[in-house]
Design a protein that fits this description.
alpha/beta; 25 helices; 4-stranded antiparallel β-sheet; 4-stranded mixed β-sheet
Length: about 700
């Protein structure tokens, strides 16, 4: 049996990229699947919201590769015009100068230097999380391709009369010296302020460039109502249609130096013309000094990243994209605008499906904000807990459209599951299990039950992945490992496994193989490491996603009966005061897995004497009613009862204290109530065990 490797996540990631594991293959006979990565701004580190969105996107991308699709996840970075301008101008002020003093060319040089530094940091952080886009296609919104596409789109729209210049009242930031859109104002204080420089905003009448978006709305609406593009969840669809029905003209010009410069030139006689990138500019014409709103070039992203306006092979193969994943706060500012421009320019909507997620909040449901002091940096979490722990903790909260409450307890639970998975895999290796992609046909009823539980988990996981509901997939697969595999099967078949039972080992091997494959999209690092310890090698993204079979109803019923009778026997043991280690005499009737029940519930096949009968799913278990209370046992119970009563009295007094109720946080009060209820229950249980009537009592 191969020893577990000591490969670090970084080493493994380098192996993936060296093997071109993330590249679209161009295989002509394979179905295609494409998605763009919402390009992060080049203005800082990735935050926890990025980590969530990237976990969701990467998981669905890896799952697509495992279905055999020629998969393209296209990465990018956004120039973030206003944010980058604000950052650079702040630095210039610290140097005692300004953009006007250094000039437009020097300002651009500094901006590109900042972009190179920041882009390296952002892409490094994406790699740390395990993102698997096609890095050879990394695109920046100011690269030549997107710049040409943006300029061509502007020219088309201008020539159609859809772009025009007019003087109107707009939001104006005196600090940034530019007009702004609503998304760039922060209204949380009641006074509109620039989200970048915090300067109070003004309403000014200025000449600006506008796009008649209302003229494009019909096609963007029809794409949804006709079913050409599906939006999930339902409330996001309603928001989209509401925005599309109430569009005003879009102010697309900004008075900035960083961004796509508006491709309008003015002639000596004042004539204004738009020139595409390939056009020859006439002598003596001057270009408009303004730049385009960043969202204009971002609205071209599904096209500009695939080579439009040229008729490229990529465009024919991967447009429209199969999926867009982004936040529900960007329905209007990005998703709708992509639908408007791309549908108008090509006659086809850019996406077949759009999935909108909520925002990450703290564990109390409060929005994360630096001003609140509750932000969480994902990088230290990855460094301390590993990328898979962070991915799983976010995945287990990921319901379509819902906000994600996140706290450090989520990481603790995720790490606990990863530890459990390591433990199961380590035990399986010691028992002689190996990587087994083929499905066995076992005779033993419990082996058949485990496979049917696997099938149910795989079906749930597959539906969760297909629907973008990672919580559903994670819940199904974690329950399989914790409740079915570790919680029942390994205990019930322990003696057979250690004895080398071929059927049990084949079943465990096959189940663990399928579990690791199904978990791989969420946990790419650990699953490959554990698979290698079982003798597998390769790139797991290229392995087929495991398929589920039809359920074995007989085995499913027998396993459910075993679990319910085991739990009932354990509960009876606790209620009646039997020690956890004692083997109880018991009889069974109609119990399909009697040997396994005895093993898991510590029962001996013998006359239980004065007894209690427990019935579940057609089977009856007969157990002794209660142990005799000798003096030592009675003293122990009396001591435990006194402790429970003391705790009950103390907590009752605390909750009756007005000062505690006034000063203590709500969480502390709720914990006190919960502890009080638990101690009352324990007190009553112990009192029942000590009561004479409890001796010989029924279940």
């Amino acid at each position: 049996m191969p020893m577990p490797t000591s490969t670090t996540p970084s080493d493994r990631y380098r192996r993936w990229t060296a093997a071109d594991a993330f590249a679209a293959t161009g295989t002509t006979h394979a179905p295609t699947w494409a998605m763009i990565l919402p390009p992060p701004n080049i203005t800082g580190d990735l935050h926890l919201g990025h980590a969530y969105e990237h976990t969701l996107s990467d998981t669905l991308t890896r799952r697509q590769r495992m279905t055999g699709a020629d998969t393209l996840w296209l990465p990018g970075l956004d120039h973030a015009a206003i944010a980058t301008n604000a950052l650079l101008e702040r630095r210039l002020r610290e140097e005692g100068t300004s953009r006007e003093e250094i000039g437009r060319d020097e300002f651009a040089r500094r901006a590109w230097a900042w972009k190179r530094s920041c882009a390296d940091d952002i892409t490094a952080q994406m790699r740390l999380l395990g993102d698997s886009p096609d890095w050879d296609r990394l695109t920046f919104t100011l690269d030549d391709g997107p710049s040409r596409a943006t300029r061509t789109a502007f020219t088309h729209l201008f020539d159609e009369g859809l772009i025009y210049r007019a003087e109107r009242e707009t939001l104006w930031c005196p600090g940034c010296a530019t007009t702004l859109s609503d998304i760039e104002a922060d209204d949380s204080t009641g006074t509109p302020a620039c989200s970048r420089c915090r300067t109070p905003l003004e309403i000014r009448s200025t000449p600006q460039w506008y796009l008649r978006t209302s003229a494009l709305a019909a096609a963007a609406t029809s794409a949804i109502t006709s079913g050409a593009t599906r939006i999930e969840p339902a409330d996001a669809r309603r928001d989209y249609l509401r925005w599309a029905a109430d569009l005003g003209d879009w102010c697309i010009s900004r008075q900035l130096w960083w961004g796509h410069r508006i491709p309008i030139w003015y002639g000596p006689d004042g004539e204004a013309r738009a020139f595409a990138s390939d056009d020859q500019l006439p002598e003596g014409w001057t270009q408009d000094p303004d730049t385009l709103d960043t969202w204009f070039s971002s609205a071209m992203w599904p096209l500009s990243t695939l080579g439009w306006p040229d008729d490229t092979a990529d465009l024919r193969r991967f447009y429209p994209n199969d999926l867009l994943i982004t936040g529900n706060d960007l329905i209007f500012f990005w998703a709708l605008r992509m639908m408007l421009l791309c549908t108008h320019l090509t006659g086809r909507a850019p996406f077949r499906r759009m999935l909108f997620h909520g925002m990450v909040r703290d564990e109390h449901g409060k929005k994360m904000s630096k001003s609140f002091g509750n932000t969480i940096d994902p990088l230290p979490l990855i460094a301390e807990h590993g990328p898979d722990a962070l991915r799983l903790s976010l995945a287990r909260r990921a319901r379509p459209g819902a906000d994600i409450p996140f706290g450090l307890d989520d990481l603790t639970r995720a790490r606990g599951y990863l530890t459990k998975l390591r433990s199961i895999s380590g035990l399986a290796g010691r028992l002689g299990c190996t990587w087994r992609a083929s499905r066995p046909a076992p005779a033993h009823l419990l082996d058949r039950w485990l496979l049917t539980r696997l099938d149910a988990a795989l079906a749930e996981a597959d539906a969760g992945y297909a629907g973008g509901d990672l919580a559903r997939a994670a819940d199904a697969l974690t329950r399989l490992a914790e409740d079915d595999l570790s919680g029942l099967y390994l205990e019930a078949r322990k003696d057979d496994l250690y004895g080398g039972d071929a059927g049990a080992i084949a079943t465990l091997s096959s189940t663990l193989t399928a579990l690791l494959l199904a978990l791989h999209p969420m946990l790419p690092f650990l699953t490959e490491e554990l698979a290698e310890a079982l003798g597998w090698s390769g790139i797991m993204d290229r392995e087929p996603f495991p398929a589920s079979a039809r359920p074995d109803e007989q085995a499913a019923s027998a396993g459910a009966q075993l679990r319910e009778l085991r739990d009932a026997a354990r509960a009876h043991r606790g209620r009646q005061g039997f020690t956890a280690s004692a083997w109880l005499p018991a009889r069974g009737d109609g119990i399909a897995l009697w040997t396994e029940l005895c093993r898991t519930a510590r029962l001996a096949d013998a006359d239980p004497g004065e007894s209690t009968r427990i019935s579940r799913r057609g089977g009856t278990l007969t157990l002794p009613a209660a142990p005799a209370l000798d003096d030592a046992r009675r003293r122990t119970l009396e001591r435990q009862l006194a402790q429970a009563q003391d705790q009950t009295d103390r907590l009752s007094s605390r909750l009756a204290d007005p000062g505690f109720l006034r000063r203590a946080p709500a969480a502390a009060q709720e914990k006190a109530r919960s502890d009080l209820e638990a101690n009352r229950s324990e007190r009553d249980r112990l009192a029942g065990l000590l009561a004479p009537s409890s001796i010989g009592g029924g279940d």
